[in-house]
Structure formats: structure tokens, C-alpha cells
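G., before I forget:
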Amino acid sequence: AQKITQTQPGMFVQEKEAVTLDCTYDTSDPSYGLFWYKQPSSGEMIFLIYQGSYDQQNATEGRYSLNFQKARKSANLVISASQLGDSAMYFCAMRHPGAGSYQLTFGKGTKLSVIP
Amino acid sequence: DAGVIQSPRHEVTEMGQEVTLRCKPISGHDYLFWYRQTMMRGLELLIYFNNNVPIDDSGMPEDRFSAKMPNASFSTLKIQPSEPRDSAVYFCASTLINNYGYTFGSGTRLTVV
């Protein structure tokens, strides 16, 4: 069964500092995709970044980068130069198109608080 | 594009009443998903459709829940009768196969009293 683990229920980071949010996953399928979503207090789910299992390079989107370590089955999100607006819940998710499964399976999330 | 549109944004209903949640996916997207979010269980997939056909409804908690997608631009999630434990935020999301962008609606916050 697919499983996503986020071990940090909550994290604090100083404004302008970088922060890493951890995500590990469990799958035996060679074809999968990994996603990170942000959920601010207003409740919407905002897509941040995607990494495919066959992608050779780590994904980057502006201040977001994904530290993809395939052998360790980890897909950590790195936020550089944290801003107050980054305070939110962050969810890691996975899908298995190779298994004919297109839904996203989510981790429990990490609550990030940015301190001024 | 207006994104995925869900209605209502908030719903308060009494136990035993029927509740219908609505979703309009992004035009051209061929997959539609219904998720439920609670503090205890996080984000759970309830059901998803491909080209209006239900593919996996194994996450639907019980027979009180039903979902339909009569056409490519509309889906409903119905709870009948509703119970207090159904209180949650219900999200609809859509995507296009071969496109990794899953777009979520703003959610419906359901409170059953």
C-alpha cells in the first residue's frame, strides 16, 4: 500500500532563513509522482512543486525546491528565504500512475510557523 | 479559467438531513476527485471519476454517501442522512491525464449538528 510519512507535526523558522520539511514514502512501484501542497489558514490547497520518479534533477519552483533522494525514498521540501506568508500547513502527496492509480495519497502534514 | 468551483462554501445542517455538495471542474480536465479532510484522519480520498465514470469509490465511508458526475462539467456528493461525524471539509479536485497539476477547489466546510 502507498504510504506517505511526515514526521514533523510542527516547525518554526526565522524569517529569511531556509527550512526543510521532511517527507518519506513507501512504494514498490518504479513509476510514481511526488507533490507538495500548501494549505494556509484560509483553507485552500495550493500546489507547490512536483517530482517524477524518473526525473534526473531535483525539481525547483522559485523559492521551493524538492530534495529527492530516491534510494532513501525521501522527498523533502526546501523553502529558501522564508517569508511570513509561508506560515501554513504543508502536505506531501504521492500518486501511482504506473499502477493505474491516479489519486493523490497525502501525508498528515507539517505546520510551519515563520517567526518575524 | 476560474479554477475548480465548489458550492456551498459553508453548510450547517441538522442530523438526519440530506446534504448535497457541488463541484465544477476545470474545463477539459478528465479526472475528478472528492476528498474529505478532518483533524483526526487528514485528507482522505472518497471517490474519483475518469471521463465521468466512477473509477474508485472504496473510500466512500458507507451507503449514506453517494457521488455522481452526470457530465464533464458537474459533480455532486450527497450525504443522506447526515450525521455529526460527517462534519469535515470536503474538497473537489480535477486534473488532466499526463498533466501533473491537480487543482483543488476552495472546499465546503460541512457542520452537522
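Chain B has a mean pLDDT of 94. The interface with chain A takes residues 31, 33, 42-43, 45, 48, 50, 55-56, 89, 91, 93, 95, 97, 100-104, 106-107, 109 of chain B (CB under 8 Å).

More on Monday.
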